[in-house]
Amino acid sequence: MIHHDLGDVTRDLDLMVGPLRLDRSLLFTVYHRMQAIQGAWLECQRRNFTRNGELTPEGEEVLREEQARFADLMLKVKRMLVAAR
Asked: What average pLDDT does the chain have?
């Protein structure tokens, strides 16, 4: 599912890059897909780093880093949405 969603996001972004045109509706779709991907990815990472029902210290660090990456990415998509007006 995540790979399929990422493929859709990449395809939508590629449509905008060629002509250097930002399509607000595509960006809106990308934003919401990325939110879903973020949730699924972080849950997957959480499961990978859970031992005996608790998140490992390494897992806590990985999740913090992943959340920061997604926050940065989502901020960039939001800025593109604003620029697309």
From this structure: 90
